[in-house]
Structure formats: C-alpha cells, structure tokens
Design brief:
heterodimer, A: mainly alpha, 5 domains, three-stranded antiparallel β-sheet, 3 strands, 62% helix, B: mainly beta, Methylamine Dehydrogenase, Chain H, four-stranded antiparallel β-sheet, 1 helix, nucleus (chain B), WD40/YVTN_repeat-like_dom_sf (chain B), WD40_rpt (chain B)
C-alpha cells in the first residue's frame, strides 16, 4: 500500500466532457505528458442508435506539465544548483573537505538571486506577466530560505536571535532604506531650504519603516534633515535615538546588564513622551510611541508591515530585544493573531510559522507543494538532512517503504528533471544519491529518446559509469539494429562490440560468412583484418579471424603453416554448418605442382570425416541434394584422393 | 588548482562546441558557441566580452551579439581566419559564416556566406550526421555517417574531392596533417591517412592500435610545432601519442579520469601544454615543460624530443586541473593567448583569464 498524494487538480473545459455519459480516460504519453480523451460509456441500446451518426467533435487533449524550472531563463537555476548539490554530496563523503551547511545554504541563495537578476535583465520593463510571477515566486522562496538559514543554520551564542532576524528583514524589505537614500541624496532640497517632508510625501512612512527595522542611524539622519530639526522636540528625539543601547553578541555586555540599560533608556524616553514633549508633531509622537514600546502603537506598526513576520520583528525590537530562539514561537503566534483579524493565512505565512514553531518536518512537507516543482524542498531538505537538523526517520511511522523524505524528494525531483529534453543530465545527479535511484535510472535512461549520436554517447557514459549493463546493451542493440537496417554490418558490429552482445555479434558474423560463400570475398576488410577482443567473446568471430589468417597464409604461399591452421579449424569444429563445404573446398588449395605433402594420414582422415558429416547434414536438411552441392562434394573427394596419393608417394605411408 | 579568475555564464543551452574568434595581436574578445540537445532549437551564438568602462579589461559576463538557428546539433565549429567560420551539424549540413565586425557594421552579426545542405546524406530523408570538420588554408574536409570524406576548397567554393566508403565503422574525427594529407579516426581505434594528391581514393597508411582494445578515438590534435606528432583522445580517457614518421604509437598517457575525452588541444603558442576535457567534467592541463624551479640547460637537446622518450613522458609530465571538476561533461575547449574557454552540459561556458603556463 502506498500513499496517494494529490499534487494538483485541474479541470478541462472541453465541451465533449459535459455529456453525463462521457467518461474521461487518460494515458501516459512519454515521460511527462498525459493524453486525456472522452469515451462514451453507453449501454447496448444506446449504442445501436448512436453508432455512425455521432457528429460531435472529439478532442484528444494533450496535457503537458508546464513548470517554471523549464523556462530558458530559469534553467540556470536548475543547472547551477545541481552543481552545488553534487559538490555538497561529494564533500560530505570526503572527511578532508569541510561541509559547512551555512556556506552551502548561502550558495543556494546566491543562485536564487542570480536567477532573479537574470529574469530582471530579460524583462526590464516588467511587462512580461509570467516573468513577474516567476520573480515573485523566487523572491518569496529566497525569503523563506533565508529565514530557515537564520533560525537553524546560523549559530548564535546565547541564542539572542534578534540581530539576525533584523538582517533578514532588512535584506528582503529594502523599500524604506531605498526611499531614505533618495531623500538624503537629494541635495537640492537641502540647498534651497525646501521643506523636505513636504517635498517627499513618503517622508514619515520612510522614517517609521526604518524605525521598524531597527535602522536607528539612518532614522537619525532623516530626522536631522527635517525642516524643524532644530526645534526642541526633534533635538530630544534625535538625542534619545542616539542614546539607544545596541546589543551586540561580541560587545562584551552581559544580557542582564544590557536589558537593564535598555529598560532605563526606554523609561526615560517614555517619561519625555508622557510629558508631551513631542506632541507638537503628531508623526514624531507616533515614532516615539513605537520606540517606547507603547501598546497603542501596535496598529500603527501593523499598517506599516506587509507581512506578519515583519510585524513580529518590528515589535520585538522595542519590547524584547534579547528574545531567545525558543520563545519566538510564542511571539510568532501572538503576532499572527494580532496581524490577521481572521485566519486567512497564505502559503508563505504557514511556512514561516512552521519555521518559528521549530516544526521543520511540517515546514519541509509544506515546502514540497511550493510551485517550484520541488526545487526548494529537494535542496533545502537535503541540506537540513545532511546537517542533521531533520531526523532521517521522521516519517517512519507513516511510510511503508523504507525511505526518508530526503530521498523521496530527490527521487521525485530527479525523475522530474529526466523528463526534460535537455536537463535530463542534471536529473541523473539527483537520482545518484537515492538508494532506489539506480533502478529508476536504468528505466529512465533506456526510455530516453535516441535523437542523436551525441546523446547516445552521453547515455552510454552515464550507464557505463553506473554499471547499468542492461541500459548499455539495450541502447547498443537499438543502434546496432538501426545500422543493420541500413545494411551496414561494420557499424552494427561496432555496436555489438560496445554492448558486449555476443548473440548479435554471432548473427553479424553469419552475415559476413554467408556473404563470403556467395561472393568469395569478405566485405569490410578494415574491420575483419583487425578484429581485436571480439574474437575472444564470440565463437563466430574466432572462426572468422582464424579463417582470414588461413586465407592470408595460403595467399602468401606459406602452405605448411596454412595446413596446420586448416587442420586446427577442422578439428575444433567451430565452423558453422553452412560454411563447412566452403571450408572443405579449400582443401584444393593444397594441391599444386610441387607435389609437396602437407597432411599426414590422420589429417586426411579428419578431412574425410568432416566431409561425411557435411554430406549427412545436408541430406538431413533437404531431401533433394542439389546439383551444386553434389558437384562440390565430388571436387572435394577428388582433392582428398589427390592429397592421399601425394602423401603415399612422398612418405610411403600405408 | 586555483579558482582565481574563473567565471561561468549560464547560457540556457547545452554547449557542444566553443571557439574563440582568432585575433592576431591581442587577446580575443569574441567567441562562438554551438548548442546541442535542445530539441529543434539549436543555435550558433556569437558572444562578446564586456567591460564595465572604457579602461578596464574586457571580461565576463559576455554579451550575446548574434544568434543563428541551426537545423541540428552542432558537431563542429572551426575558424578559417579571423572572419570566416565553418559550422557543421548532425543533419549533414556545413555552413560558412562571415562575422561582420564592429568596424563594418553598427551591430556585429553573422552573415551566411555559403551553405551545403545535405552534404552528408543517406538519401530518403534520413538524418545523416556530419561528424567532424577540419580546416587547413581555406580548404575544408568533412566526414560523416555516410562514410564520405568531402574536401571543399573555399577559394572556389566548390566540393573539390569526394572519397566514398572510407571506413566501415563509424568515423569520429578528422584532422589535416599537411595541406594534402588527411587523417581520419574511427570508433574501432583505427586511423587512416589519405593523400589528397593521389587521384583515386587510396589509403597511404592504415594505422591500427594493436593493443587488442577497440576503444573509439574521440578526438585528435596535432602538435603545433612538431607536426609529425599526433595526439588522440580515447573514450576511456587516455591520450595516445603517435609518430607519423613511423606510423606507430609511441606511448599512452592516462590521467586517472577514465571517462571519454571530448576535445584535446595544444596551446597554440606554447606547445609544452596540452589541454583535454572529458565527460567526467574535468579540464586538465598536461605540461611537459620542466618546472621553473629546475635549472634549464640551454643545450638540452633531449628536450625537443620529449614525446619520443617514453620514460621522460612517464616521469616528467605533470597533470593539473585547470578548473574545479564540474561533474557534468565538458564538451569543448579553446585557447587563445592566455585565455581559455570551455563549454559544458550544465548549459554554461567557463572562462579562465590567465592560464598558468
């Protein structure tokens, strides 16, 4: 029993499916496509009426998986990350190499950013909707990945996590900082005594945005650019901001000491706020309220935050700056409930909440359904798995098969990449690292369409390196048969050698020999003269090799050696049946004018014996021994008699 | 192994061939890539290195200057001079392009000069690959799956000579030994030498590797200064050194990487350095030069006969990775001056600005 997971549901708005009697059937088409078609499930009575006059159009619908990852611009994400993935896996196995999870996490994030940049470059005026969507998806992914990195991969002494969280927020919500630099870099306003807060309508939004990111220095700079900056309230405000104690892990200040200083600073600020020092400017008053951690300011903070986690971090700065990692979960839940009036979480919210909760398993499972075809879940799970943040067996109770999610994700992602005409090589990388991957590879590699010789050489390379002999032999067989169809025996033989397919080689050897019987010479001399290792693995080619050697010796008139080889050939009986007579005919070569004797009496009896065998077999095969064979037999017999007479004359053997 | 100065650019198509556009005096700033395995969408692309401002040297990332659709996987790209480039595809087509440079036109682009569609063909509409292409002084020699060797003269733009049935096992690569001698290698580890002056197709030499193994020769290169030395790369990752004066195999060298070599090339000006790239994703530099630490004896005559001396090859050759292994087949490499470029199956081109020679 295996669990069925529904990844996606879609409806097909085709009119032919509207009919109640019509059922949708589908079948796999290739590796990643589905063909869906309507079939009328009709009863017999209906069938009689409707047959023949059904004029409605029936479409076969071809469903193809469209994914972000296969877009030409996003393909670099797949390719580059597969390189990093491979590097990480090899380094894990190698004890001399360091495998710093943080380093690799940053590498993956860098790949994401590069990809976003590439998308931006190809879509400069942001008119392409698809690319805008891709960019948004990748951007969110980067955000969530970074949060995961901050919470789980970065080690913070004392677990005071706020500074890291601030870094995270600052990188992903850079709007306030960008606006601030627009304001401060505007020298004209400074020189012409314009009111800067009037010139830039977003002035106070920017200030609050900066305060909510804990960016105090820039806030001060902005405040001092304000037209009223030399008035009492502004001077006070700037002074308060300047004296805000900052916590740094390596600052040498113990947490308790820092907390008391912070409390002292905040209460003095609060005192000023309550005295109404800032009341003259309502915006400034609001800013100071936020800084004092005033509960009234919550709504204001909320309206300046686009997500609840931004809200969470903003609150923490002025309420609990030394927050520990383990208490984040509590704060997170509080912020979510404060931020949303109703529970209307989107995917990102639940992902982030799982991270704050420390529920990595749940997080990883939810990440799987992120619309990036499993890119993030595969890489992040793998990374977390390798640094032991996820227990390998966490799903053991449910999973029947002995697979951890890391492997399951690798398997899914790898199989998915294998469906692409160009990225299949990257898919191999992932399948290599699952225990079941070899079986998958052996099926998928042999299923790849053989479109070019280049591809064949790559498939063979991958299959050979992984000892998938069945793939090698099946690909070679296919190529060999294709060559044979073009009647290119030499090429087919190359594939037979490559695939170590001795049965196929035997067949090809037969073709060569039959051709020789017909024409009296061998084709493809360049191959047959240099047979190499095939003679050892295939009997037929051993015979061909020896026979060609024999022919050469005979041609060079080295008849003594030729005779030895000839007898050897007959004795070993490796000659195929159809070739026997041809071989025996060669006995006539040894009869020449010199009356030299090459055979002794046992040799001649062997020749006679083989001739008898051949005659017997040919009689068995066909009742009517044809005239051609008979004339040959007669010739051979004459030859044998001549040889015998020569040897008797020479050696006087009786 | 140093990582300094290596850049990668992902170009969205697997790269089968990459070539620098030759430049006589300066380091080249343009290169050409040919893609493969991208369904019907295989292209020849021209890239230019870019610089941030006028003064800084041109560098990666490159800018796409032109892109021409091809009718199949690109099997070979060879520059004839610094303007003309010949391209072959596995659909049996050979085309010659002229690169219209910056001083001729506002935008740099390819201009098709001449094309031979179905130069290699089985007839009946079957795909027949043009396997490899070699150039020598404005003559082109091509080999294909149809066992034909075509010699094309670019001065007359005509097919000069056709030799048919030059092999009975698949041909793999071709190279000119001299202007009139062509060497063809096949997948049974055999090499055949053809003399183009002899009227009818006749073999002048038939060289076999008698090591009993019939490993396909995948690539071939000629020593730039000692023209009688031929270097072959095999599918099992070793390099064979052949002496064409005696038609014999001098030695084989192995790097320990047993995957198929895809391209073998000498540094054109520093023949002591040989470069190979392989399916295993490694780009290796084989240096026969003595280390700088050693005292160089100016009268060392043995040195010029380095490759003949098998012992020396075994002891003095040093093999180094030029770039970090990338775990995906590297299909092609090219060197010009001090800069090296290579293209791989992870849809990237890698650029090394300063080779250590």
């Amino acid at each position: 029993m295996s669990k069925t997971i529904v990844y996606d549901t879609l409806s097909i708005p085709d009119p032919s499916f509207i009919d109640d009697e019509v059922k949708m059937l589908g079948s796999w088409f290739g590796m990643s496509n589905i063909c869906a078609f309507p079939t009328k499930m009709s009863t017999l009575s209906n069938n009689r009426n409707s047959s023949g006059d059904d004029k409605t159009e029936r479409n076969i619908i071809h469903l193809k998986l469209k994914t972000m990852l296969f877009d030409p611009k996003v393909r670099q994400l797949v390719n580059e990350s597969s390189g990093v993935f491979q590097e990480l896996q090899t380094n894990v196995d190698d004890p001399t190499k360091s495998t710093d999870a943080l380093y690799y996490s940053r590498k993956y994030r860098a790949i994401l950013s590069t990809c976003i940049l590439a998308i931006d470059r190809s879509n400069p005026d942001k008119t392409n909707e698809t690319y805008n969507q891709y960019k948004m998806l990748l951007h969110n992914l980067q955000l969530i990945w970074h949060l995961c990195e901050v919470l789980y991969l970065v080690t913070v002494p004392g677990d005071t996590i706020l500074n890291n969280l601030l870094d995270w927020i600052k990188i992903h919500y850079e709007n306030a900082e960008n606006q601030a630099s627009v304001i401060t870099e505007n020298k004209i306003a400074y020189l012409t005594d314009e009111h800067i807060e009037e010139k830039f309508t977003f002035y106070w939004d920017t200030v609050i945005g900066l305060v909510l990111q804990g960016n105090i220095d820039t806030t001060r700079m902005l405040l001092s650019n304000h037209s009223q900056s030399d008035t009492e309230p502004f001077i006070h405000a700037i002074k308060i901001l300047k004296s805000m104690p900052t916590y740094s892990i390596y600052g040498g200040l113990p947490i308790a000491e820092y907390t008391s200083r912070f409390k002292g600073w905040q209460s003095s600020a609060k005192a000023k706020l309550e005295c109404g020092v800032f009341l003259s400017d309502s915006n400034l008053n609001n800013v100071m309220k936020i800084i004092c951690g005033d509960p009234d300011a919550i709504n204001l903070i909320r309206s300046h935050c686009s997500t609840w986690f931004q809200f969470l971090v903003a609150q923490l700065i002025y309420t609990d700056p030394t927050v520990k990692k383990h208490s984040l979960s509590l704060y997170a839940h509080r912020s979510v409930s404060k931020y949303y009036e109703e529970s209307e979480y989107n995917h990102m919210d639940t992902l982030a909440l799982d991270l704050f909760d420390g529920d990595l398993e749940g997080f990883v499972k939810k990440l799987k359904s992120y619309p990036d075809s499993g890119w993030s879940s595969t890489h992040l799970t793998n990374l977390l798995h390798l640094c032991d943040k996820i227990e390998p067996e966490f799903e053991m109770s449910e999973a029947v098969e002995n697979k951890n999610p890391n492997e399951q994700y690798l398997l899914d992602y790898g199989t998915f990449l294998m469906t692409h005409h160009s990225l299949w090589q990257a898919g191999v990388t992932y399948l290599d690292y699952c225990s079941a991957g070899k079986g998958y590879l052996s099926v998928l590699l042999s299923k790849l369409e053989i479109t070019s010789d280049l591809r064949v050489s790559k498939i063979l390379h991958y299959a050979t390196a992984r000892r998938l002999h069945n793939v090698v032999s099946s690909v070679c067989k296919v190529k060999g048969m294709l060559s044979l169809q073009k009647s290119r025996i030499g090429e087919a033989l190359c594939w037979a050698i490559r695939g170590q397919d001795s049965a196929f080689a035997t067949h090809l050897g037969d073709l060569y020999l039959k051709d020789y019987v017909k024409s009296g010479c061998f084709s493809n001399p360049d191959i047959l003269d240099n047979l190499g290792s095939i003679v050892v693995t295939c009997d037929r080619f051993m015979f061909i090799g020896k026979y060609i050697q024999f022919l050469k010796l005979a041609l060079d008139k080295k008849l003594n050696e030729a005779a030895l080889l000839y007898i050897e050939l007959l004795r070993s009986n490796i000659c195929p049946e159809y070739f026997r007579l041809t071989l025996l005919m060669d006995v006539l070569m040894f009869i020449d004018d010199s009356k030299e004797c090459y055979f002794n009496i046992t040799d001649i009896s062997l020749i006679t014996m083989r001739l008898d065998d051949a005659i017997m077999e040919s009689n068995e095969d066909s009742e009517t021994a044809d005239q051609f064979i008979l004339s040959k037999v007669v010739k051979i017999r004459q030859g044998i008699v001549q040889l015998l007479s020569i040897s008797i004359l020479k050696k006087k053997i009786v | 192994m140093s990582n300094v100065g290596i850049f990668a650019e992902f170009i969205g198509r697997k790269v089968n061939k990459v070539r620098w556009k030759p430049n006589d005096l300066m380091a080249s700033t343009m290169f050409v890539t040919g893609s493969w395995d991208n369904e019907e969408d295989n292209v020849l692309e021209l890239w230019g290195l870019t610089s941030e401002n006028e003064n800084s040297a041109k560098d990666f990332p490159p800018k796409l200057l032109d892109c021409v659709q091809q009718d199949g996987n690109i099997t070979q790209i060879r520059f004839l001079d610094n303007k003309f480039v010949a391209v072959s595809t596995d659909n049996g087509t050979v085309k010659v392009y002229r690169i219209i440079g910056e001083n001729e036109d506002a935008n740099i682009h390819f201009n098709e000069v001449i094309a031979w569609e179905n130069l290699h063909t089985f007839g009946k509409g079957q795909r027949c690959s043009c396997k490899d292409l070699a150039v020598c002084n404005y003559s082109l020699a091509t080999i294909g799956d149809d066992y034909k060797l075509n010699v094309i003269s670019l001065n007359t733009k005509q097919i000069h000579q056709v030799l048919e049935g030059i092999s009975s096992s698949p041909l793999t690569c071709i190279c000119f030994l001299t202007e009139t001698e062509v060497l063809c290698c096949n997948s049974l580890s055999q090499m055949k030498l053809w003399d183009l002056r002899v009227a009818k197709s006749s073999i002048t030499a038939n060289i076999n590797n008698f090591t009993q193994t019939q490993v396909p020769i995948t690539c071939v290169a000629q020593h730039p200064s000692q023209k009688h030395f031929i270097f072959t790369g095999s599918e099992e990752g070793d390099v064979g050194v052949w002496d064409m004066r005696t038609n014999s195999l001098l030695t084989t060298m192995s790097s320990g990487d047993a995957s198929s070599l895809t391209e073998i090339a000498f540094h054109p000006l520093e023949p002591d350095h040989l470069f190979t790239c392989s399916f295993g994703g490694r780009l290796l530099q084989w240096s026969s030069k003595k280390s700088y630490m050693c005292r160089i004896d100016p009268g060392d005559m043995e040195y010029s006969n380095f490759w003949v001396n098998t012992d020396k090859v075994k002891t003095r050759l040093s093999i180094n990775d030029v770039i970090q292994p990338i775990y995906m087949p590297i299909n092609s490499l090219d060197i010009q001056k001090q800069q090296l470029i290579c293209g791989a199956d992870n849809e990237a081109v890698y650029f090394q600005r300063n080779l250590k020679l």
